Amino acid sequence: MRHLNVAVLLGDPRLPYAYAVDGRFGHEELEAVERLREALGQLPDYRFSYLDDHAALIDDLRALPPDLVLNFCDTGFRNDWELERDIPALLEILGIPYTGADPMSISLTTDKALVRALAAGQGIAVPNETYVELAADPVVLPSIYPCLIKPNSSGGSFGITRDCVVHDAQEAEAGRTARGG
């Protein structure tokens, strides 16, 4: 019986990663990969390879295309979160089937205002929201406090910290200034 060749695509631990606490992959991330290797190693009829060297990624995929890619690379190409959608785009260009969201889905779901509008349009309860354009002059700050000021274009909780909770206009303005708005 032929084994299914599966490539597990991961972030690159050799490169900086701005969203990690110390700007690099830490012990927890590396431990998670080891546990993944152990778990997948228990599956019969599959051969797993692990691709985490982004400098060689394109060449590796072209030289030995896998039957399937488990796309666990949510860090983006070269650990650049803005290039997260480029990973599935690359796999599509190379004609390699993969798991996870396609490039368009990643693009749409990283726009929090759009996701909120789509959810509200489907009757899903969503919190009140005001879009604040930090580059506008004058900046129109939220009118209801306390509130959470978060970046619009990022996935998951990226960019959300304890400092995003503000209790009045003065804290909102201080946060806007700290974020470069």
UniProtKB/TrEMBL annotation:
What InterPro entries would the database entry show?
Answer: ATP_grasp_subdomain_1
What species is given as this protein's source? Halomonas gemina
The opening ranks of the lineage are: Bacteria, Pseudomonadati, Pseudomonadota, Gammaproteobacteria, Oceanospirillales
Note the superkingdom of the native organism: Bacteria
What is the protein name stated in its UniProt record?
ATP-grasp domain-containing protein
